[in-house]
UniProtKB/TrEMBL annotation:
SUPFAM superfamilies xref list: Cysteine proteinases
A molecular-function term among this protein's GO annotations: cysteine-type deubiquitinase activity
EC top class, as a word: hydrolase
GO biological process terms on file: protein deubiquitination; proteolysis
Catalytic activity, as annotated: Thiol-dependent hydrolysis of ester, thioester, amide, peptide and isopeptide bonds formed by the C-terminal Gly of ubiquitin (a 76-residue protein attached to proteins as an intracellular targeting signal)
Organism: Myotis myotis
Highest taxon above the source species: Eukaryota
Region annotated Disordered, chain positions: 384-411, 794-820, 839-926, 941-981
Residue stretches spanning the membrane: none
Cross-referenced Pfam families: Ubiquitin_USP47_N, UCH, USP47_C
Magnesium recorded as keyword: no
Lineage: Eukaryota, Metazoa, Chordata, Craniata, Vertebrata
Biased amino acid composition, Polar residues: 389-411, 887-896
One GO location term (cellular component): cytosol
Protein name, as recorded: Ubiquitin carboxyl-terminal hydrolase 47
Length: 1333
């Protein structure tokens, strides 16, 4: 209710209603799934009786209730919102209060049918505005006794036709008489059989609505067809054709023709001699025009439209008819005459038209009345006595269009195109007697029994059917799953139009809900049939009814079982594999706990592992890993009671707990907490696997120690207990009298227990050995590292180098873990420092001895070849089976980046080499996602960037720069090491242990795996230093890639970030390749091929340096292009130019300097373009554009040609185009290309879609805006005529253009998408010849 209308609900006996306090009631209907989210709002006087409230609600949702208690007495609060729920009473659905239709009082409650109106619903849910819908649950059958059809998505048109056929006695009875032979056809693809099943269900089902998926599946449709709305008349024609095909050589072979087919004569009569030429056509429906072409007024009624249908036209003037008898062109009369009307007369009101002003389809909503009884005797042919009474059914004047009845009706008298949509049928001819007009004239009274209504526009809408039952002469609305009674007044509302005059614009303001198809039945007592009674069913239908009832009962029982089934997560720790398994236990609520255990036992496949007596179900909280309680003595208790009833979700899970045969299950009581106890051995520096004990929150620490002492047999007197409340939060329990609850214990807890005789307990906890061991235990993760493949060259160098420096032992052996204070680490440090210094000096020497002595100009391949493997001068005994624990630096805030590089540049920096040139770099992440296809891949779901971003944010807040994986030109102050080679920063102990690992994964020969246990607080720089002995090269010459699902790789490049983002058992790949030096940038080089289908081709990765000229970079590229790409180029025969996505841009001149004339950044991309001749671009004032000639007479485009302009003058552009094409200057027209290079466009569009010959004098103004090199210009000769194409040529050209443009990622926009034709596939599957579509 809206406030302005609330006075409708004020009782008449209240005089001063305006002064009385009012009660705002908001009612929610939860009895109906459709209305649970809707609200009814009532604003009533406080003295309103409850009876009146119920009456008002019943007016909206028709109910019945009586009570004289006032709203105030019922504790309603005036001035506030009072929320009410409309619920079931004693499990019964509220039923509609049926009104006597004989009252005829439509002013009180205006009945509505069809789509429920959204506007003007007076503040209430639209479902309550109309009483035409059953107010019952979806599962209950409508009170009308009829069953609805479920709309699959947009299949309302199908539902309307199916309900009409079902309510046609002659059709339904004939369908029932047809018997399906399963041996001859698959029932799934049999259209008549599926229709038969559907009709049986519509007649016998107790459901409110049934599905039509089996019927559409027999049509050969898939789920996508449900989203295609079609014309109901088109469906009727196509489905009748399909049924005729399926019913060949059966009793029903001529059923469609007997019921729906009529005949008419198409004639032309000479007005001079009276000679008449004619042919006989058949029809299944009569299309009636709503509004004559060119007229602003519509026909007032169906009778008017029928008279206009047979109204002849005069052929005169240029339209004269050539008379065979007169042997000349004469004036003639052309028209149609009805010869025979069918038993079931179908009239199509052609409401869909085409507006040639707007060039859009429109719907005509004009009013057109239709009678309940239609006398067709006035339209039958009474004139022609010369016409023979027997004629061939075949069209004598034209080729048959594809059925035994002619499609001439559709072709001559509709605006549809001539394409025959549906099934192609063979020509079929026959003879049929035509009754004399005089015999039919007195028996041509037809009664209306079906109105198919369309609501909406020409773009789409909704269909439903109003059908009169021949059983009780009552009209019903069949609106998908809703079936309701309606009256004759409701039928009149489908006439369309408005109450005003039928002017030109009346259609635009009229209701969009109106009749579209009318079906009449001839009133003939001798032929009018009644529906078959149950005892009259053929035997096969009786069997089908029985089968369908059994299936429905089975479904009902299954739904009942589903409603009484408890579905809960089930976990089980496999007793042999020690892997937590997960499944879903579905158990009936009446099953006992013992039976549920047996079900879970079989579900987890434990039959051959342990006996069922060693299993039990316990209440479990998976999130906290907490066993809440066990169920001792409740083996015979129903699961519904144990679980608290059948629920959609449970706040707990079940665990199938197992034990060994000699063990006894522990009792878990509600209120207990679970504690996992880890025993710590300080001497062995080990942490044992957990032992589970259960305690109470009110126990003291002393009592808890006694409990643990009994469980693990350690003395309680010297026991130290450390509680780990969360990650890196260790608390030593020191107060004996404190309760566990006060110490922070919860449902599930983790403690570490140590009870040695050492003096470690006397030290402060954070300084104790116990704390350090637990801290290391909490932060140590296991990683699997794949070492790089050792090429023969590098491997021999390493081997020789190792021999020269002494036997280094097996590099796969463990690093040594040196125990004791810092002083005892000195020898290991000395080894590491000496090795590092030697590695550095060797690397420096190799770089100095490299080609040309300039490492910045060496290729990436040469970087590899020039790196000598480092010497590992440790004695073999110092490497074999030992762990290395070193104090490593906290990374210095100073980084390796040059100050000129922006944060975004740094953020995108990568190290890529020719060994892993397939690695692509992401431009927005701190790491690089890689794959083997040279394409960026979305990050894996498991990628955790939180620690990366939070670390970056923290550093930014501290005002520190980030250290990236780059190498320095010297070992200056920005280096990770100072001059003495010692690491700077705060000294910390970081655990690192590596050992060889054998894996089943085929990593290839030469690859080795390491299993590394490492403190995740270690920095990437320190981690790489630890890996140096195993990789065999300096840390600055290899890169770390983190491996994710599907072998996605993500490069880690921030040296000062820790491994905190790494998870347990992460995989890491090590790749060889030097890091960038200060001022160097990784550049991806692509070849520009302007006239190729794919104009952008990746060539290689290169390194450009700050201060380098373009010519120097070209000199460095030449050998790389020769070796890696097989391109032999001279320095003056190619150019470099800017690349923006796929668009070529500014041409870089040889003297340009990077970072001065050309802005460069990490992951920069550049085009390399091979020149046909000498470089024409000499200065930045020139402009290079790419021109392409369009030849309209040939419907083709010439290849690209570059045009170099000295200025931005349009006149100069015209002159240059004149020079290269030979077109006279005054005839040249040009247009700028659209989109990304190469600005592809269909040859069907280019002539009219581009902005040809813009009225500008310079190129750098609107609408051209050509200010940089690389713009695309199309040009043409304006005197050249456009080729005229036939329909076949145009269709063929469209296919070619569509194929071409799809390959380049462009679309053909020549014409709008053609609507998908409605087809029914007789073999149950779509036609594989897609060209027919």
């Amino acid at each position: 209710m809206v406030p302005g209308e609330e006075n409708q609900l004020v009782p008449k006996e209240i005089e001063n209603a305006a002064e009385e306090p009012r009660v705002l009631c908001i009612i929610q209907d939860i009895t109906n799934s459709k209305t649970v989210n809707e609200r009814i709002t009532l604003n009533l006087p406080a003295s309103t009786p409850l009876r009146k409230l119920f009456e008002d609600v019943a007016n909206k949702a028709p109910l019945d209730h009586t009570s004289d208690k006032s709203l105030l007495d019922a504790n309603f609060e005036p001035g506030k919102k009072n929320f009410l729920h409309l619920t079931d009473k004693d499990g019964e659905q509220p039923q509609i209060m049926l009104e006597d239709s004989s009252t005829g009082d439509d002013s009180a409650h205006d009945r509505l049918i069809g789509p429920l109106p959204r506007e003007g619903s007076v503040g209430s849910t639209s479902d309550y505005v109309s009483q035409s819908y059953s107010y019952s649950s979806i599962l209950n059958k409508s009170e009308t006794g009829y069953v609805g059809l479920v709309n699959q998505a947009m299949t309302c048109y199908l539902n309307s036709l199916l309900q009409t056929l079902f309510m046609t006695p002659e059709f339904r009875n004939a369908l029932y008489k047809w018997e399906f032979e399963e041996s001859e056809e698959d029932p799934v693809t049999s259209i008549p059989y599926q229709l038969q099943r559907l009709f049986v269900l519509l007649q016998t089902s107790k459901k409110r609505a049934i599905e039509t998926t089996d019927v559409t599946r027999s049509f050969g449709w898939d789920s996508s067809e449900a989203w295609q709305q079609h014309d109901v008349q088109e469906l009727c024609r196509v489905m009748f054709d399909a049924l005729e095909q399926k019913w060949k050589q059966t009793e029903q072979a001529d059923l469609i023709n007997e019921l729906y087919q009529g005949k008419l004569k198409d004639y032309v009569r000479c007005l001079e001699c009276g000679y008449e030429g004619w042919r006989i056509d058949t029809y299944l429906d009569i299309p009636l025009v709503i509004r004559p072409y060119g007229s602003s007024q519509a026909f007032a009624s169906v009778e008017e439209a029928l008279h206009a249908f047979i109204q002849p036209e005069i052929l005169d003037g240029p339209n004269q008819y050539f008379c065979e008898r007169c042997k000349k062109k004469c004036d003639a009369r052309k028209g149609l005459r009805f010869l025979h009307f069918p038993y079931l007369l179908t009239l199509q009101l052609k409401r869909f038209d085409f507006d040639y002003t707007t060039m859009h389809r429109i719907k005509l909503n004009d009013r057109m009345t239709f009678p309940e009884e239609l006398d067709m005797s006035t339209f039958i042919d009474v004139e022609d006595e010369k016409s023979p009474q027997t004629e061939s059914c075949t069209d004598s004047g034209a080729e048959n269009e594809g059925s035994c009845h002619s499609d001439q009706m559709s072709n001559d008298f509709s605006n549809d195109d001539g394409v025959d949509e549906g099934i192609c049928l063979e020509n079929n001819s026959g003879t049929e007697k035509i009754s004399k007009p005089g015999l039919e004239k007195n028996s041509l009274i037809y009664e209306l029994f079906s109105v198919m209504v369309h609501s909406g526009s020409a773009a789409g809408g909704h269909y439903y059917a109003c059908i009169k039952s021949f059983s009780d002469d009552q009209w019903y609305s069949f609106n998908d799953q809703h079936v309701s009674r309606i009256t004759q007044e409701d039928i009149k509302k489908t006439h369309g139009g408005s109450s005003g005059s039928r002017g030109y614009y009346s259609s635009a303001f009229a209701s969009s809900t109106n009749a579209y198809m009318l079906i009449y039945r001839l009133k003939d007592p001798t032929r009018n049939a009644k529906f078959l009674e149950v005892d009259e069913y053929p035997e096969h239908i009786k069997n089908l009814v029985q089968r369908e009832r059994e299936l429905e009962e089975q479904e009902k029982r299954q739904r009942e079982i589903e409603r009484n089934t408890c579905k809960i997560k089930l976990f089980c720790l496999h007793p042999m594999k020690q892997v937590m398994m997960e499944n879903k236990l579905e158990v009936h609520k009446d099953k006992t706990l013992k039976e549920a255990v047996e079900m879970a036992y079989k579900m987890m496949d434990l039959e051959e592992v342990i006996p069922v007596d060693c299993c039990r179900l316990v209440k479990y909280d998976e999130f906290h890993d907490y066993l809440e309680r066990s169920y001792e003595g409740e083996e015979d208790t129903p699961m519904g009671l144990l679980l608290g009833g059948v629920k959609s979700t449970y706040m707990f899970d079940l665990l199938l707990e197992t034990r060994k045969p000699d063990q006894v299950f522990q009792s878990y009581k509600p209120g207990e907490v679970m504690v996992k106890v880890h025993v710590v051995d300080l001497k062995a520096e080990s942490v044992a696997a957990p032992v589970t004990v259960r305690a109470y929150l009110n126990q003291t620490v002393t009592e808890f120690k006694q409990l643990i002492s009994k469980a693990i047999h350690l003395p309680a007197e010297t026991m130290r207990i450390v509680l780990e409340r969360c990650y890196n939060d260790l608390r030593l329990l020191t107060v004996p009298s404190k309760t566990l609850k006060a110490e922070g214990f919860f449902r599930s807890n983790k403690v570490f227990v140590e009870s040695s005789e050492t003096l470690d307990y006397q030290m402060a906890f954070t300084d104790s050995h116990l704390w350090k061991l637990l801290d290391r235990h909490a932060n140590t993760i296991r990683l699997f590292v794949l070492l790089p493949e050792q090429s023969p060259g590098s491997y021999s160098k390493r081997t020789a180098y190792q021999k020269a420096g002494g036997d280094s032992g097996n590099v796969d052996d463990d690093c040594e873990r040196v125990k004791g204070p810092v002083g005892n680490l000195k020898s290991v440090e000395a080894i590491l420092e000496e090795s590092t210094e030697k590695l550095k000096s060797l690397s420096l020497q190799q770089q100095q001895d490299g080609d040309n002595g300039d490492s910045s100009k060496s290729t990436e391949t040469s970087d590899f070849e020039n790196i000598e493997s480092p010497l590992n001068e440790r004695d073999s005994t110092s490497v074999d089976n030992r762990e290395l624990e070193q104090h490593l630096q906290t990374s210095d805030p100073e980084n390796f980046q040059s100050e000129e590089r922006s944060d975004s540049d740094v953020n995108n920096d990568r190290s890529t080499s020719s060994v892993d040139s397939d690695i692509l770099s992401s431009s927005h992440s701190s790491d690089t996602l890689c794959n083997a296809d040279n394409a960026q891949i979305p990050l894996a779901n498991g990628l955790d960037t939180h620690s990366i971003t939070s670390s970056r944010r923290t550093k930014a807040n501290e005002g520190k720069k980030e250290t990236w994986d780059t190498a320095e030109e010297d070992s200056g102050t920005d280096s990770e090491y100072d001059e003495s080679g010692k690491s700077r920063g705060e000294i910390q102990y970081m655990y690192f242990k590596a050992e060889p690992y054998a894996t089943d994964e085929g990593s290839g020969e030469g690859h080795k795996w390491l299993m590394v246990h490492v403190d995740k607080r270690i920095t990437l720089a320190a981690f790489k230093q630890h890996l140096e002995p195993f990789v065999g090269v300096l840390s600055s010459h290899f890169k770390v890639f983190r491996v994710y699902a599907s072998n996605q790789e993500f490069e880690s490049v921030r040296l000062n970030e820790t491994l905190s983002s790494f998870s347990e058992d992460n995989k890491i790949t090590i790749r060889l390749g030097r890091a960038l030096k200060k001022g160097e940038y990784r550049v991806k080089v692509y070849q520009l091929l302007v006239n190729e289908q794919e104009p952008c081709k990746f060539l290689l990765d290169a390194v450009f340096a700050k201060g380098m000229t373009v010519r120097q970079s070209k000199e460095e590229l030449i050998p790389q292009l020769r070796e890696q790409c097989g391109l032999e180029l001279s320095i003056d025969r190619f150019r470099l130019r800017k690349k923006t996505w796929k668009n070529p841009g500014t041409v870089f001149l040889d003297y340009h300097i990077y970072e001065e004339d050309i802005n460069i950044s990490s992951n920069w991309e550049v085009f390399l373009e091979v020149l046909d001749g000498v470089e024409k671009m000499k200065s930045m004032s020139q402009l290079a554009v790419l021109s392409r000639r369009w030849r309209p007479s040939e419907m083709k485009l010439d290849p690209f040609q570059e045009v170099v302009l000295e200025s931005s003058s349009v006149d100069e552009l015209r002159e240059k185009l004149c020079e290269i094409s030979g077109i006279p200057l005054e005839d040249i027209e040009f247009a700028k290309g659209r989109g990304t290079f190469p600005c592809d466009i269909s040859v069907l569009d280019i002539h009219q879609d581009l902005d040809w010959n813009p009225k500008v004098s310079t190129l750098n103004v609107w609408p051209l805006y050509i200010c940089d090199d690389g713009a695309v210009i199309f040009y043409r000769d304006k005197t050249e005529e456009l080729m005229e194409l036939t329909d076949e040529q145009r269709n063929e050209l469209m296919k070619k253009e569509s194929s071409r443009l799809q390959k380049t990622g462009h679309r053909v926009t020549y014409s709008p998408r053609k609507e998908k034709a409605l087809k029914i596939y007789l073999d149950g599957a779509p036609n594989k010849d897609l060209t027919q579509d």
